Amino acid sequence: MHYARMMGHDYHEGYYFVTINTAPRRNCLSRIVGGKVELLPFGEIVLKAYLQMSTDSPEIDLRVCAIMPDHFHAIIVFRRRSAHPLGWHIRRFKARATKAVRDLSGDRTLGLFEENFHDFISFSGDELDRYTQYVKSNPIRWQWKRDHPDFFRKHFALRHSRLPRGISWTAIGDRSLLDAPWLEPVVVHRRITEEERSAEVSRYLELAQGGATLIGGFVSPGEKEVAKGVLEIAGAKVICLLPYGLKGYKPHGVAVKRLAESKTLVLSGFPESVPSTPINYVNCHLNNDWARLIALGRSGDESPDSQP
Question: Counting CB atoms within 10 angstroms of each CB, which of 46, 133, 169, 176 has the fewest?
């Protein structure tokens, strides 16, 4: 399989989140036990080959990696411009690991990795931090997804008496949160004073403390403050309405833990094809309407009847 690189991008420098799968996605690198990685012999080989990359090429900074049962994640940063592009370094790493695996197994035809690799380019410090946290949380996410598979599976065309009709809803998480007796829509407008925003954030957090399940898009600065504050409230539950499709949605960090603990439901009323960036603020306003209707328990003619 061929994975196209970004046209026009200079792969001799930059910040990258790299993923390489085993062939044919066999669980031969590690075991995940209690959310922690236990390397198998082939995984030990992969780790050694990975660390050798920076020894061979000092311009490469190896930030963090996760050797999962059937794939490998790494954050790779070029300290300075390299004489060779990213793909050259990855091919060298894969060849070294494959040779060592063949030497260990005695099978000169044994393949270790799929052809080529996936890469995501980080264009900001925030993006790099998100990729780093994603890699670090991969083992525990693997464990939780296997312990609670239903909460991490996409459910398409979801139907519920509270959901506005005429919308094809997709969900990830515990759908029973829609049955909560008290749903509170969270809408904090951008064009209010800092004092007003602080008061609104405090009000919503008090409601969550009192047992309300908060529902909203959590996109505006004030709404993001509410979402962050909820994490400090034991047992607080949230329904998050994304203003884009769930095609590329991958929970990481604390979001994975909350999904596994039945504290978060992620909903989207938009097709898979709607991208996450740039944020579509028309969709955000539509989400606010949906949050109010869902909280009221209305799914009939009052709901918006057109879907982007």
Answer: 176
Give the predicted TM-score (pTM) of the model: 0.67
What 3-state class would DSSP assign to 281?
helix
Q: d(Cα 302, Cα 308) in Å, to the nearest integer? A: 17
**Rg, Å, the chain Cα set:** 23
End-to-end CA distance of the chain: 33
Sheet holding 15-21, edge to edge: 60-67, 71-78, 15-21, 118-121
Q: Are strands 169-173 and 36-39 parallel, antiparallel or unpaired?
A: unpaired
Q: How far apart are CA 259 and CA 252, in angstroms?
A: 10
Q: What pLDDT is attached to residue 163?
A: 95
- The sign of the CA dihedral 52, 53, 59, 65 is negative
Q: Which tokens sit at 191?
A: 């064009």
Question: What is the distance between the alpha carbons of residues 112 and 96, in angstroms, rounded to a whole number?
Answer: 11
CATH of the domain at 205: 3.40.50.450
Same domain assignment for residues 232 and 137 = no
Low-confidence residues in the chain, pLDDT < 70:
1-4, 298-308
Q: Kindly state whether residue 306 falls inside one of the protein's structural domains.
A: no
Contact status, residue 67 vs residue 136, Cβ threshold 8 Å? no
Q: Quick one: tokens of 281? A: 């603020």
